[in-house]
């Protein structure tokens, strides 16, 4: 299977199963698909009016040489690995610690219902937090590195428990030889100098929620009393990033049907001095006025390409910045198991509620049928874990013939469930946008190579 596309001055041909990516001339680009199944004579006859015989012979021979070297027209070798993949010992690598099911903003698109997650507001006790640390130490088995994401709601509303959790984990590190990496996702309202200094010292990564331009952000992310959150958080985010040095962070925004020109929000965030930016499409029921609609796909794809070309121009001027969805590792990248199964929700990654209940990820929290156990008793719903283990690019019919399957790993299970009631389907709008983002990411690499 191959996929070909153009970006700026580059003709790009991808071989899906080997992972090879080729920059080719116009002749090779034109015949790339047919050369995989037609003879040289058939290709020459088909394209005789467009190119000379010598040009076609040279291009065809080059493609056949690549084929002999296993770099194009390769067969799928990975589906046979799935049975062994399913027999692996369950290892939990990361937990999403819901220290607060409460929030001080009233974001209109919030999947967590202002932090309540289909339930009631509440804060995690230090006892539950400590037990969560014990749980992941035990269930990470042989793995040394462990990740804990402080999440909500708004995690800063339970600040003392956050600090107590970090302190307890550092103590357990000495006993067990484990290495904890902490992250936090925050709306920034409660940030002050003391908290900023603590986060910069103790958090491996900090995710800062801001949607972009003031009018865009405040439309969807007002404070509890309906006022501007932009004016409150922007100076705090600037201070945090200024003090953070070279440590990881990114500004994480959401675009909706109301701002299909989201490139302007990316530019605005970058203009404020932030060089690590992520702006993602909202995922919402079709009846919501801000939901991304099928008719929005074409303009959004055009906007991604526009953004990629803007970033190319900025990079060539020495003013480059990172856009999360255009960051791609073509040299190493994820292992094949990760490419088959994705984020690890329900298997390697679990969410913990304030009460200590376990769910496959933060987006399933509050859906009782997905409860997997507790941090006190461990994973008990092994049938649910098995269901997520079997969720991969070969369990989804739509993925089997898709050129992007080893880059997106089948997409988000929660989105599939929310739109189709089954984690073994795909969220079609998400698929189309993901494919365009991948083309832009690879196109940028090609132009800058």
UniProtKB/TrEMBL annotation:
Matches recorded under Gene3D superfamilies: Aldolase class I
Gene designation per UniProt: scfB
Gene Ontology terms for molecular function: iron-sulfur cluster binding; metal ion binding; oxidoreductase activity
Boundaries of every Radical SAM core domain copy: 89-322
InterPro entries recorded: 4Fe4S-binding_SPASM_dom (IPR023885), Aldolase_TIM (IPR013785), rSAM (IPR007197), rSAM_sf (IPR058240), SCIFF_rSAM_maturase (IPR024025), SPASM_CteB-like (IPR047602), Sulphatase_maturase_rSAM (IPR023867)
CDD domains the record matches: Radical_SAM, SPASM_CteB-like
Protein's UniProt name: Thioether cross-link-forming SCIFF peptide maturase
Cofactor or coenzyme needed: [4Fe-4S] cluster
UniProt keywords, alphabetically: Iron, Iron-sulfur, Metal-binding, S-adenosyl-L-methionine
Lineage, uppermost ranks: Bacteria, Bacillati, Bacillota, Clostridia, Lachnospirales
Secretion signal, residue range per the UniProt entry: none
């Amino acid at each position: 299977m191959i996929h070909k596309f153009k970006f700026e001055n580059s003709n790009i041909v991808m071989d899906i199963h080997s992972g090879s990516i080729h920059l080719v001339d116009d002749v090779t680009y034109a015949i790339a698909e047919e050369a995989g199944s037609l003879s040289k004579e058939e290709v020459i006859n088909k394209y005789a009016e467009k190119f000379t015989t010598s040009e076609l012979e040279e291009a065809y021979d080059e493609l056949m040489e690549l084929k002999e070297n296993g770099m194009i027209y390769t067969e799928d070798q990975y589906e046979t690995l799935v049975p062994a993949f399913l027999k692996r010992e369950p290892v939990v690598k990361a937990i999403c610690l819901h220290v607060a099911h409460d929030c001080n903003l009233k974001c209109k698109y919030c999947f967590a219902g202002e932090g309540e997650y289909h339930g009631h507001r509440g804060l995690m006790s230090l006892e539950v937090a400590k037990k969560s640390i014990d749980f992941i130490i035990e269930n990470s088995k042989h793995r040394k590195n462990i990740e804990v994401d402080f999440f909500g709601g708004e995690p800063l509303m339970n600040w003392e428990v956050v600090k107590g959790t970090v302190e307890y984990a550092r103590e357990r590190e000495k006993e067990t030889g484990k290495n904890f990496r902490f992250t936090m996702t925050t709306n920034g309202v409660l940030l002050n100098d003391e908290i900023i200094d603590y986060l910069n010292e103790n958090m491996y990564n900090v995710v800062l929620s801001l949607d972009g331009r003031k009018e865009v952000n405040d439309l969807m992310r007002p404070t509890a009393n309906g006022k501007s959150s932009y004016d409150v958080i922007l100076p705090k985010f600037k201070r945090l990033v200024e003090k953070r040095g070279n440590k990881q962070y990114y500004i994480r925004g959401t675009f909706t049907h109301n701002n299909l020109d989201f490139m302007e929000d990316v530019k605005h965030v970058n203009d404020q001095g932030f060089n690590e930016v992520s702006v993602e499409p909202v995922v919402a029921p079709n009846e919501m006025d801000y939901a991304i609609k099928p008719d929005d796909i074409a303009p959004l794809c055009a906007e991604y390409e526009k953004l990629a070309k803007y970033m190319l121009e900025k990079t060539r001027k020495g003013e480059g910045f990172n856009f999360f969805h255009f960051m791609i590792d073509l040299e190493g990248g994820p292992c094949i198991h990760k490419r088959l199964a994705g984020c690890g929700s329900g298997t390697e990654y679990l969410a913990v509620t304030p009460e200590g209940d376990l769910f496959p990820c933060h987006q399933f929290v509050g859906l009782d049928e997905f409860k997997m156990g507790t941090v006190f008793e461990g994973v008990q719903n092994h049938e649910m874990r098995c269901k997520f283990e079997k969720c991969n690019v070969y369990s989804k019919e739509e993925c089997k013939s898709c050129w992007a399957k080893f880059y997106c790993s089948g997409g988000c299970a929660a989105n599939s469930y929310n739109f189709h009631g089954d984690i073994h389907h795909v969220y079609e709008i998400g698929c189309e946008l993901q494919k365009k983002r991948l083309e832009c990411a690879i196109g940028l690499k090609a132009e800058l190579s």
